[in-house]
Amino acid sequence: LLFMPWGTESELKAQIVAATLERTCMMPPLPADAAAFDRRKEEARARISLVAQEIARLIGAILAEHAALQKKLAQLKAQPAVAEAIRKQCAELLPKDFVVATPFERLAHYPRYLKAAALRIDKLRADPARDARLAQDFAALEKPWERERQARRKGGAPDPWLEDFRWMLEELRVALFAQELRTPAPVSVKRLQKAKILQP
Q1: 55-97, pLDDT tens digit by residue?
Q2: Of 59, 44, 46, which is closest to residue 13 (Cα–Cα)?
Q3: CA-CA distance, 182 to 36, in Å (whole number)?
Q4: Which of 15, 162, 176, 194 could tie 99 with a disulfide, CB 3.0–4.6 Å?
């Protein structure tokens, strides 16, 4: 039911199966001969059920956080700019094929990202001026990154550095709007400004 905004139950199952196969069978280096293929198959057989359960649990947590966030967003009539920013963030994080399109290591952080957006809404009521100030700081980094990404997309291959910066921006959202949820590594506006300057 929670997956309905993205598709059907069978589509969700297909994505979970594909993500499970990716994590259990498709790691580099890929098998180069029949013996290596058989070894990979046997190794995967032992793990496949546990990995599928782990992925399904994580997707369940992501969908539950997303549903809770949507309820809070529906009540955010007085702050359309914040609501739009959070909707854009959700659309970026959760396209129709997000289960297979996002590396598992990144997906594991999604419940925290969505929880941080919900906490932002809670804090907004108490201090809208603070939120506006932080949003301005965030936009000063996000907008140039978005422009650069669009330019590179037109040119062809995606840029790994820009992709890494995207995840740093997600962590910055947590650091700015929901510090209590913590980030795996220190992140701040100043750190990301320096990272931008050091871009190759």
Answers
A1: 999 999 999 999 999 999 999 988 999 999 999 999 999 999 9
A2: 59
A3: 42
A4: 15
